[in-house]
Amino acid sequence: MARYGMVIDTRRCVGCMDCVVACKTENEVPEGLNRDWIASDTRGSFPTLHTEIRTERCNHCDNPPCVTCCPTGASHVEEPGRVVLVTPEMCIGCKACLSSCPYDARFVHPEGYADKCTFCVHRVREGLDPACVAVCPTRCMHFGDLDDPNGEVARLLDSREHHVLLPAAGTEPRIHYLG
Amino acid sequence: MRELILTRHNDLVDPFVHVWGWEIPLYLFLGGWVAGMMIINGYFLLRGRHREDLCVCSVLPGLGVVLLSLGMLALFLDLEHKLYVWRLYTTFKIASPMSWGSWILLLVYPALLSAALVRIPPLLGALWPSLDRWSDRVSARAGAVRGIGFANVVMGVLLGIYTGVLLSGLGARPLWGSALLGPVFLLSGLSSAAAFTHLVARHAEERTLLAKSDNVFLLVELFLIALFLVGLLSAGEAHIQAARLFLGGPYTAVFWVFVVGLGIAVPLLIQSLAVSHRIRHTALAPLLVLCGGLALRFVIVYAGQFSHWVG
Q: What CATH number has the domain spanning B23-306?
C-alpha cells in the first residue's frame, strides 16, 4: 500500500505563502485559521547565522499520537496513502488530539470539530497534487509515495541530506525537509 | 541562539497550546476527590463500619454522585462538538485514555449508587421509606456489602489513576510524559477525600483516623511529586525544560506556594500537631488540602500545555 509523504526543498522555499493561500482557498479554511504555514527558523550566533525557511503542516505521522488518543475514532488513518484524517461527524471536540500533536498542526474548526491538513485527498484521488504543491512557484514541494523507490520523493530523499521536525517526539513524521 | 517565527496564529494553539481552560482541571480535581471518597467509603464498608450510627458511609456515596456529576458537567462544557458526545459510547478505543475514562465513569455510578444504598441518609429515608427497606435488605447481607465495598475501592483506584493517565497519555506535552502522574493524582484525590471526610465526620474516632491517614497520603504525595520532578530532570532536553517550569520558570511560585506549601506542607504540619494532641482539630488543614488539590490540577494542566518538544 502507498505511504504518502512530502519532500520540501528548504533551499528553494522563499516563504511566499502561496501554499498557505492555495490551501485556504481549496479547502475553504475559515478566516484566522491555517492548515499550513511558513516557519522561519534561525540558528547560530552572529555572524554565523543560518536561516531555514520552510512550509509546515500536519506531518501525517507513521506513529500518529492524535489517532491513538482519539476516544471516538474520529481521527483515523485512511487508505490509500495512510493519510491521517478527521471525520467531523465522529469528533466530540475534546481537543485531546490538539494536545497530543507535537507540531501543533491541528485547530478547532468554528463548527466544533478538530481540523487539519488532509494532503488534499480529494485532489489526490483524482490524480492531482495537493493544492499547496500544485501552486508552489519555486517548485520546492514534492508529493508522492515514500515507499515507491522509483518515485520522485524517494529519489530526492536518496540524493540529498534531509531531516524531519522534532524526531525526538517519536512520531515518525512523513514530511521531510531537504537541507 | 534560535529564533523561530511562524505565520500561524490559530486560536487555542498559538503562541502555545491552551486548549483546556478551567473545565478540565476542575473535572480532574472532582474526579480525583470522588475516587478518594470511593476508596475510603469502600474501606469502611469492608471493615463493617456502616453499622456504626455516625459513620460517614451515609454521606460519601451520595455526595460522590453529586460531585462527579458536576465534574462531568464541566467536562461536557469543555467539548467543542457537544451534540456528538454520544459518540464516546459507540466505540471503545483501547489505546485512548479518554475512551477508557468514559467507560470507567459509566461503571463508577452503579458502584456509588449501590454504596449509597447500604446506608441511606436519614433525610432520604424519611422522604422515600421504600429506600430504607431496600437499604435494610442490602445491609443485612454481609457478602453483598463486602462486594460493594470492594467494587468501590477498585473503581476508586481506576478513576483516580485515570485522571492522571488522561494527561500522561498525551506525549506531545513533555511535562505530562511521566507514568507518575497517575499515582500523584490518585494520592492527591485520596488526601482531598480524607481531608473532606475528616471535615464532615461526626465520629471522633473516624476524624482521628482520617487525619492520620491524610498525613500519610500527603507524605506519599510529596514523595511522588519529588520523584516526578527528578524523573523529568533525568530525561531528555524537552523534559528537563518542562521541569524547569517549576524550577525557576513561570509556574514556580504558584507550584511551590499553593500546591506544595499551602496545599501539602502546611496542612501536614497542622494535622501532625493535631493528631499528637498539641493543637485542636480545625477546618483549616482540610480546607487547605482541598484547595491544594485543586491548585495541583490547574498547575499541571496549564503548565503541561505550555511545555513542548524542542528540536
A: 1.20.1630.10
**What is the distance of C-alpha B142 from the center of its chain?**
29
Q: What is the rounded average pLDDT of the residues B212-231?
A: 96
Residues of A in contact with B7 (CB under 8 A): 17, 20, 34, 37-39
Say if the Cβ atoms of A94 and B8 lie within 8 Å.
no
Domains and CATH numbers, chain A: 4-178 (3.30.70.20)
| CA-only gyration radius of chain B, Å | 21
Chain B from 243 to 302: CB within 8 A of any A CB: none
B173 inside 8 A of chain A by CB: yes
The shortest C-alpha distance from B252 to chain A (Å) reads 22
The CA distances from residue A142 to A10, A77, A163, B35, B243, in Å, are 12, 21, 15, 52, 39
Q: Which of the residues B84, B105, B241, B306 would you substitute to probe the A interface, choosing the one with the greatest number of A C-beta atoms within 10 Å?
A: B84
Q: Report pLDDT digits (tens) over B41-85.
A: 999 999 988 888 778 888 899 999 999 999 999 999 999 999 999
For β-strands A36-45 and A4-9, DSSP reports them as unpaired
The sign one gets for the Cα dihedral A124, A129, A132, A134 is: negative
Give dist(CA B19, CA B275) in Å, integer.
Answer: 43
Q: Contact at 8 Å (CB) between A132 and A36?
A: yes
Q: What's the pLDDT tens digit per position in A2-20?
A: 999 999 999 999 999 999 9
Q: What share of chain B in percent tops pLDDT 90?
A: 79
